[in-house]
Design brief:
Blueprint lengths: L10 H29 L12 E4 L8 E3 L9 E6 L11 H17 L4 E6 L3 H11 L5 E4 L5 H4 L13 E8 L2 E7 L12 H6 L19 H6 L8
Parallel strand pairs: 3-4, 4-5
Antiparallel strand pairs: 1-2, 1-5, 3-6, 6-7
Length: 232
C-alpha cells in the first residue's frame, strides 16, 4: 500500500505498517464522517438566559460580559468549561493540560469562531492561575456568579463538583441556540487533547496514569475525585 521506506526497515515491519496504514486511513474517513453528521445536527435548545460572566483576563479583570456578547462578530461560540471550583486550592491538572493546548490554538480558531474558556472559581483566582500558566491567547471568563455551569451540565450537585465540558452555541436571527456538547462519560475530550494523542503514537502507548504529569497537584481533586490517587 505504501511506497515509503525508511532506512534498514525489515519486510516484516513494512507489511505490518501497511496493514496499520489501512486502519489509519479508515479512522480518518470515520472521523470525517462523524464530523459531517455533527454538522448536520439541527439546532438544539434556545439559550436558557443571557448569562452574565466576569472577565478573568488581566486587562478586563472583573468586568461583566453577557453571554450574547461573547460572540463578538462571529455566529459560532466554542466554550470550554474547565474544572476549577470556588473552594478548590488548584484547578484540575488534566483540565489545565487541555487549556494549555487550547490557549495556543486560540489565535487560529478565533479567526472563524468565538473561543472562550470558563471556570467556576472567582475571576481573580482564575486570572492568577492563567498568569502562572502563561495563558495569554484564549479569552477567559468566570461563571462564579451565574448558573451557566449548572444549567449546561458542567457540574453536578454543587459548584465545587465540576466537569470538563466543551459546548458549541450558534447565533441566528432568531436568537442563540445550543448546537453541540460533550456527552460521553470517558475520553470525551480526546479529540482536542494533544497529550493523549501524542502518547498514542509511541511504542508503549498511553502511560498508566489518570492525568498528564504536572508540576503541581490539586488537593481538592485528589480528595474528592481520585480518592487519593496521585497525578504524576
Amino acid at each position: 500500500m505504501s511506497e515509503r521506506r525508511y532506512p534498514n526497515e525489515s519486510k516484516e515491519y513494512r507489511e505490518s505498517r501497511d496493514a496499520l496504514l489501512k486502519e489509519e486511513a479508515a479512522l480518518v474517513d470515520h472521523v470525517k464522517a462523524v464530523a459531517k453528521l455533527r454538522r448536520q445536527l439541527p439546532l438544539g435548545g434556545r439559550l436558557k438566559e443571557d448569562y452574565i460572566f466576569e472577565w478573568a483576563s488581566n486587562e478586563k479583570l472583573g468586568q461583566n460580559v453577557k453571554f450574547s456578547e461573547l460572540f463578538g462578530s462571529k455566529d459560532t461560540l466554542l466554550l470550554y468549561s474547565f474544572m476549577f471550583g470556588p473552594s478548590w486550592d488548584n484547578p484540575c491538572p488534566s483540565c489545565t493540560s487541555v487549556v494549555d493546548a487550547l490557549d495556543r490554538m486560540a489565535y487560529s480558531v478565533s479567526r472563524d469562531a468565538a473561543f472562550f474558556t470558563v471556570g467556576k472559581a472567582p475571576a481573580i483566582r482564575i486570572n492568577d492561575w492563567a498568569n502562572k500558566r502563561g495563558w495569554s491567547q484564549i479569552d477567559i471568563i468566570s461563571g462564579y456568579e451565574c448558573s451557566y455551569q449548572a444549567d449546561y451540565n458542567c457540574q453536578s450537585n454543587s459548584d465545587d463538583r465540576q466537569f470538563p465540558t466543551m459546548h458549541v452555541f450558534k447565533k441566528t436571527e432568531d436568537g442563540i441556540f445550543h448546537f453541540w456538547g460533550t456527552e460521553l462519560t470517558s475520553n470525551d475530550l480526546d479529540m482536542i487533547w494533544p497529550y493523549w494523542n501524542l502518547m498514542d503514537l509511541t511504542p508503549k502507548g498511553r502511560p498508566d496514569r489518570s492525568s498528564p504529569p504536572q508540576n503541581f497537584t490539586s488537593r481538592y481533586i485528589k480528595e474528592n475525585y481520585l480518592d487519593g490517587e496521585t497525578n504524576d
